[in-house]
Write a structure and sequence with these properties.
The protein is α+β, with helices and mostly antiparallel strands and about 290 residues long. It has seven helices and eleven strands. The chain has one domain.
Length: about 290
C-alpha cells in the first residue's frame, strides 16, 4: 500500500513539474483545441450546407512554420452585430440572416518559450494567420455577403470579415480595449476570374494593413493562452509598447457559391512577403473544396 502511495506521489509530482514547464503548453494546446474545434465544426456552415472543405495545417511542410492543424470557430451573432454597427443600422429595418464560420491557423510553437511564434516580433511569422471564412445567408439588402448586385466583389464588406476576426476575436481575447485597436486596410490590387483550389471565378485581393501586434505583457489568465500559449515575450525587450501597431500584408480569395448560398473567402495575413507567398503556394492553395 505504501509503495503504491509512493509511486502515485512521484507520478503526481512529475506531472506537476511538467505542467509548470513551458513545454507543457504545447500538448495542452493540442488537446484543448482538438476538442474545442471539433465542437465548433459540428455546428459550422460546412455541416449546415454540406460543404466539404479541407485546409492543410503546418504538417504539410517540412519547416517549423504553422500549427499542425486548422481550427474551426463559429460566431454568427457577433459578426451580425459587428456589420450592423459598421453600417450604422443597429436594430433598424430588415436584418441580415448571415452565418459565419472561421477556419484558421496560427504560427508554430516555440517550445522553449511555451508559446506560439505569433507573439515573437522578430519572427517572420509574427502576428500571422491563414485560413478561410464561410459566410452563408443574405444581407439585409438581399445580397450574398461580400458581393454586389452584379456579382462583383464588394471591396468594403470583404474587408469587414478579417477586421471582425482580428479585432473582436483575436485582440479582444488578448485583453486590448476597443479604443486602442487599429485596423487600416489599403487595397493594392484586385484580380478577377482567378483559378483557385480547383475552380474558376475567384477574385483575388491584395492589401497592405496597419494593425495591432499581439505582443504584450501577460498578466493573469486569458482563454487565448490555451491555444497560443501565454505570451513569453516582453514588449520592452524590443522597444515596443503592448499591442504596438505593425504593418502587415493581406491576401484574400473570394467567391460566392449559389448552390450553398455561401460566400467563401480564403485569407492570409502576415508581415513577411516570403511567408505570404510560401503559405499561399505550399499550403492554402492545396486546400480541397469539393464543388460537385
Amino acid at each position: 500500500m505504501r509503495r503504491k502511495l509512493f509511486i502515485t506521489g512521484i507520478i503526481a509530482a512529475v506531472l506537476a513539474v511538467f505542467l509548470w514547464l513551458p513545454l507543457s503548453n504545447y500538448p495542452i494546446s493540442l488537446a484543448v483545441m482538438k476538442v474545442y474545434s471539433g465542437i465548433h465544426k459540428s455546428n459550422s456552415v460546412m455541416e449546415q450546407k454540406g460543404i466539404s472543405l479541407e485546409i492543410p495545417g503546418g504538417g504539410i511542410t517540412q519547416e517549423k512554420d504553422w500549427y499542425p492543424f486548422v481550427m474551426t470557430f463559429n460566431d454568427s451573432a457577433g459578426f451580425r452585430q459587428f456589420i450592423r454597427e459598421k453600417a450604422g443600422k443597429l436594430n433598424l429595418g430588415k436584418k441580415d440572416s448571415l452565418e459565419l464560420t472561421i477556419l484558421y491557423n496560427f504560427p508554430a510553437f516555440d517550445y522553449s518559450k511555451g508559446c506560439s511564434l505569433l507573439y515573437n516580433p522578430q519572427s517572420p511569422y509574427y502576428n500571422s494567420f491563414y485560413g478561410a471564412y464561410l459566410v452563408s445567408g443574405r444581407t439585409a439588402e438581399g445580397l450574398p455577403y461580400g458581393f454586389t448586385a452584379d456579382g462583383s466583389l464588394d471591396l468594403e464588406s470583404a474587408s469587414q470579415v478579417p477586421q471582425f476576426d482580428f479585432q473582436r476575436l483575436v485582440l479582444a481575447d488578448l485583453g486590448i480595449r476597443a479604443s486602442q485597436q487599429v485596423f487600416d486596410w489599403k487595397i493594392e490590387s484586385v484580380s478577377q476570374n482567378v483559378d483557385y483550389v480547383g475552380s474558376s471565378g475567384w477574385t483575388r485581393l491584395d492589401a497592405s494593413l496597419r494593425v495591432n501586434g499581439v505582443i504584450h505583457r501577460a498578466e493573469g489568465f486569458r482563454r487565448s493562452y490555451l491555444q497560443y500559449g501565454r505570451c513569453a515575450y516582453d514588449p520592452k525587450d524590443y522597444g515596443l509598447e503592448d499591442f504596438a501597431p505593425v504593418h502587415m500584408k493581406g491576401r484574400l480569395y473570394a467567391k460566392y457559391f449559389s448552390e450553398w448560398d455561401t460566400s467563401i473567402f480564403f485569407y492570409i495575413m502576415t508581415g513577411d512577403e516570403q511567408v505570404l507567398e510560401r503559405c499561399d503556394a505550399e499550403i492554402l492553395s492545396k486546400s480541397i473544396l469539393v464543388t460537385e
